[in-house]
Amino acid sequence: MPSMKQWVLANKPTDLPTVSGPNPTFKLETADVPKPSSSQALVKTLLLSNDPAQRTWIVPDADPNRLYAPPVQVGSPMSSFALAEVVESGSPNDLAVGSLVLAPTNWTEYSVHEIKGLQAIKPIEGLDLGHFLGALGLTALTGYYGIKEVVGATKDDTVVVSGAAGATGSMVVQIAKNIIGCKRVIGIAGTDEKCRWVEKLGADVCINYKKDSFEQDLIKETEGFVEVYFDNVGGSILDLMLTRMKRHGRIAACGTISNYNRPDPVGLKNFFEVVSMRLHIHGFIVLDYIHKFGDVVAELTQAWKEGKIVVDESMQTVVESKFEDIPNTWMKLFEGANTGKLVTKIVA
Ligand SMILES: NC(=O)c1ccc[n+]([C@@H]2O[C@H](COP(=O)([O-])OP(=O)(O)OC[C@H]3O[C@@H](n4cnc5c(N)ncnc54)[C@H](OP(=O)(O)O)[C@@H]3O)[C@@H](O)[C@H]2O)c1
């Protein structure tokens, strides 16, 4: 039986996961390569999606009933989504060997999946495959669902987007400004360089939240207050944004990365603003909109062909990594090392 490498969860961290030292969060193991049944395919992981949400799947003492995805158990492979290649098919008429698919492969070299649960990908000439995990993948769907459906942004709205230089945020900026035509789009990101790039994507302005002047800068740019806030980060930036919303303002609560590695979450000191300004805060999970994946990817691909949105190398940070380096590359999310989608390209 051939064997393969996989990363399993060694323990559930209370703060920043560790990849070395006395008590690392993950452990590299070997396992048998699984065999597909007649309804399954064996796939080889090529490109891993790096998602901040993976951190929320390894929280200690989480009540599974309060999570949207099953928590990873200690000793089990780390959950992950990927672009993979079919290397053996139980039903070649339904899915041929060599096909590319999106699959929940976990941090394993090989995995088996029911063929009917796999999303086949047709490569587009001139477009790197990594974009099927980002600008034309699940993070794009997240941005589209959040800004268009969840908070229903319109041409009359001023929109603030945090995490604006990340995979989701960079698509929200483009969809809001270049597809919906929102009146004004204000990005928030962690470096001046990222901010200038977010402005190139279409934001009217982008503010660096790591500068001492951030609060004054945000207050100045949101003079008159705003209708919509797309929140990728939670914490103190959300708290500040609660004070910058118009009456009946709408907030798309997409994620709270600023609190994912904190045992002592911060924020929401200004929650009374929600009451006094009659704010609508809408939490959402992209999986509830997954049935729209094909339609949305087709619409965004068309928008890219028409030159309305950018889907190029600036929209992703592809890190070539040996299998042994997968956790290290994932951790870059929490250092802000990525612009656009952080993709791990597994190399020998
Ligand atoms: N609701 C859903 O269905 C759904 C789906 C996908 C993603 N999400 C959420 O959306 C958010 C963005 O995810 P993504 O996949 O697009 O990742 P991403 O934005 O591409 O990558 C994470 C970025 O977060 C920023 N960041 C890291 N630590 C931070 C902190 N302490 N405070 C503020 N910003 C911080 C960094 O950018 P800077 O350099 O700007 O700090 C980093 O590049 C996450 O909260 C994620 O959980 C939700």
What is the fourth-level CATH superfamily of the largest domain? Medium-chain alcohol dehydrogenases, catalytic domain
Distance between the termini: 21 Å
Which ligands does the model contain, each kind named once? Answer: NADP nicotinamide-adenine-dinucleotide phosphate
**What is the strand tally?**
15
Task: Briefly note the CATH topology name of the largest domain.
Answer: Quinone Oxidoreductase, Chain A, domain 1
| Quaternary | single chain
Helix content: 10-25%
General shape: globular
- Average of per-residue pLDDT values: 97
Tally of alpha and pi helices: 9
CATH class of the largest domain: Alpha Beta
CATH architecture of the largest domain: Alpha-Beta Complex
Structural class: alpha/beta
Low-confidence stretches: none
Largest sheet features: 7 strands, mixed
Rounded Rg: 20 Å
Would you write up a description of this structure?
The protein has 348 residues and is an alpha/beta fold. It has two domains: 162 residues, Alpha-Beta Complex (Quinone Oxidoreductase, Chain A, domain 1), CATH 3.90.180; 146 residues, Rossmann fold. Helices cover 23% and strands 26% of the residues. Strands 3, 4, 5, 6, 7, 14 and 15 form a seven-stranded mixed sheet that branches. Strands 10-9-8-11-12-13 form a six-stranded parallel sheet, with helices on both faces. A two-stranded antiparallel ribbon has the order 1-2. It is globular, with a radius of gyration of 20 Å. It starts with a strand and ends with a strand. Bound molecules: NADP nicotinamide-adenine-dinucleotide phosphate. NADP nicotinamide-adenine-dinucleotide phosphate binds next to helix 2 and helix 3.
